[in-house]
Amino acid sequence: MKLFFRTAICCIIMTVILCCGCGDAGPGERTDRAGQNTASWQYMDTAMGTVVQQTIYAKDQETAEDFSRQAFDLLSRLESEEISWRLDTSEVYRANASAGSGEGFGLSEDLSGLLEACKELWERSDGAFDATLGAVTRLWNIDSWAVEEDTEEFAPPAEGELERALSTCGSQRMRLVWEESGESGPKLGTDSVTEGDSAAAASASLQEGNGQAGRCRLYLPEGMQLDLGAVGKGFAMERLLGLLEDSSDVTAAVISLGGSILTYGSKPDGGPWRVGIVDPFDTSGSVGTLTLEGQWCVSTSGDYERYVEADGVRYHHILDPKTGMPAVSDVRGVTILMKDGLLSDGLSTACYILGPEKGMDLAGQYGAEALFVMADGRIEMSEGMEAYFMENENRR
Ligand code: AMP
Ligand code: MG
């Protein structure tokens, strides 16, 4: 059996080779003709189970270092306090532990917004994206595919096991119940609602899934487990963007986390950011380059990023919620380009499953551009993507 974990490698490639022009090769200081400081510094570390690389443009090294430390700190807190399903300190862990209790779980504002967005993406993608697949992703043990020493025999889940795990999934059964906004609005007591009567409570005194300001409770049925692996890096990009906006001495940055890249600000020389898109057929190379100005989020999902091979069959990490099996697709990789990090990450996963026709329609609904590398090597992209993407000459 072979185990593969490409995310870390791809991340390094994206920055060092594909993201050529994203910044200087190493720490340094220069001034341009106008006497402006054009220095950038690079930092690499691991966070959220992937390699994170930052290229920071700042007035001096101390500022860049300080920002970089804050960014890594933010990512590790995001994982341990909010989205990890493994760490009992996190909100998602506690939400999962509440499944079937009937009492629901009081969500933070950030996580309620994230789950609302996930539910909407589930609806719009016709169920291709589903954040409630936790029981199935755990059955496949996708996280352990990254651990090299874990080389014992891998066998796909037995049919019965898969059916049982699948029966716990389905975003239609994940209930987000909003307390009405406003001081005089009714309060939801944790002891007053059981799973069975949560719908009645919703219609009587609460509004379900309306996204209004106010506290939100999450009701997961017995056995349901959230898996936010498909949006975690995107959620992190949103947070990093907030940190950049608050850091006035950082003028520009490119941050890559796994399959996601955030660009911010403008290089002092006015040149664009160039972000390469990994070639699924040769992950040390690229299929082409995006030329971008200012703030963008670029997320890529592909069957080459994380997979396992057993008995000559290749199983990858993007699952079809209808079967619980790796999605059968004539796509090898999808890249989404848009301003919003969370959605770019979620959309790349959904579009991989949907394929180019439905995928481009879905991306269009969110104002996003999409590029598909097909199994036969062809590239299909949305019309708007053509303004940013240049295919590598050696492929044409
Ligand atoms: P990404 O690399 O962003 O495409 O996300 C893939 C990860 O999301 C997997 O490792 C799973 O944890 C999770 N996942 C797999 N299939 C789906 C799906 N259909 N919908 C939502 N999350 C998924
Ligand atoms: Mg994703």
Task: Explain how this protein is built.
The protein contains nine helices and 18 strands. The protein has 396 residues and is an alpha+beta fold. The chain has a single domain (3-395), classed as ApbE-like domains (T-fold). The strands form four sheets. Strands 2-3-8-9-12-15-16-17 form an eight-stranded antiparallel beta sheet, with helices on both faces. A hairpin with a 4-residue loop joins strand 16 (369-374) and strand 17 (379-381). The structure holds adenosine monophosphate and magnesium ion (MG). Adenosine monophosphate (AMP) binds next to helix 9. The site of adenosine monophosphate (AMP) has 20 residues, from helix 9.
Number of helices: 9
Identify the CATH class: Alpha Beta
| Uncertain stretches | 1-35, 182-213
CATH topology: T-fold
Features:
alpha+beta; T-fold; 4-stranded antiparallel β-sheet; 18 strands; about 25% strand; globular; binds magnesium ion
Quick overview:
The chain has nine helices and 18 strands.
Task: Please specify the SSE layout and strand pairing.
Elements: E1 2-5, H1 7-18, E2 40-47, E3 50-58, H2 61-83, H3 91-97, E4 105-107, H4 109-124, H5 134-140, H6 159-166, E5 175-179, H7 198-205, E6 206-208, E7 216-219, H8 232-246, E8 250-257, E9 260-265, E10 273-279, E11 282-292, E12 296-302, E13 306-310, E14 313-316, E15 331-338, H9 341-365, E16 369-374, E17 379-381, E18 389-391
Antiparallel strand pairs: 1-13, 2-3, 3-8, 4-7, 5-6, 5-7, 8-9, 9-12, 10-11, 11-18, 12-15, 13-14, 15-16, 16-17
Helix pairs in contact: 2-8, 4-9, 8-9
Magnesium ion binds at residues 230, 299, 301, 345-346, 348-349.
